[in-house]
Amino acid sequence: MRKKRKSGLIVFLLLIAVAMFAYFTNPTENMHRKAASEKINIAVAKTLDKYGLSDSALGALGTEMTKPFIAVLVEQHVSSKNYYLFSTTQVNLDGKSQIIGVGVFNKVFISNKVDEILEREIDNYINKKIQSIKIPGINLDELLKDLEIEGLSL
């Protein structure tokens, strides 16, 4: 009976130690914002690479120009909720809050679904901008169709 009681005490003390460690290493809101910002920057870089712009001066300019916008976006729309032993990363858009990540032990893990959504939205934005360009004498819709036929898609 004593051995069972001793092992129960050890398990209890171990759980207390893990809980204390989790409490003291729970990520701050700034850590959540930094992780979200890094995720967005990676999505922008992937999109630039997809369009062959990552190694160009235009790509570098695009990356530098988006950083201030990303910083404002993250500051205004990303927050965290503290549950003492862990925390969640939340995005607040149009009055709705969505959990996109979890923070524990000084680490923030943002869902991979965020990558897919960001890349799709950036692609949609770029395509809308391309389609809104008007060049006299050139029909961009036909040009885009020709590029798709040749295997080059935007």
Write the layout of secondary structure elements.
Layout: H1 2-24, H2 29-50, H3 57-77, E1 78-82, E2 87-93, E3 96-104, E4 107-110, H4 112-132, H5 140-149
Antiparallel strand pairs: 1-2, 2-3, 3-4
Helix pairs in contact: 2-3, 2-4
Short description:
The protein is of the alpha+beta class. It has helices spanning 2-24, 29-50, 57-77, 112-132, 140-149, and strands spanning 78-82, 87-93, 96-104, 107-110.
Description:
Helix 2 packs antiparallel against helix 3 (57-77) and helix 2 (29-50) crosses helix 4. The chain is 63% helix and 16% strand. It has helices at 2-24, 29-50, 57-77, 112-132, 140-149; strands spanning 78-82, 87-93, 96-104, 107-110. The chain contains five helices and four strands, in the order H-H-H-E-E-E-E-H-H. It has a four-stranded antiparallel sheet. The protein is α+β, with helices and mostly antiparallel strands and 154 residues long. The relative contact order is 0.12. The protein has one domain (2-116). A hairpin with a 4-residue loop joins strand 1 (78-82) and strand 2 (87-93). The mean pLDDT is 81.
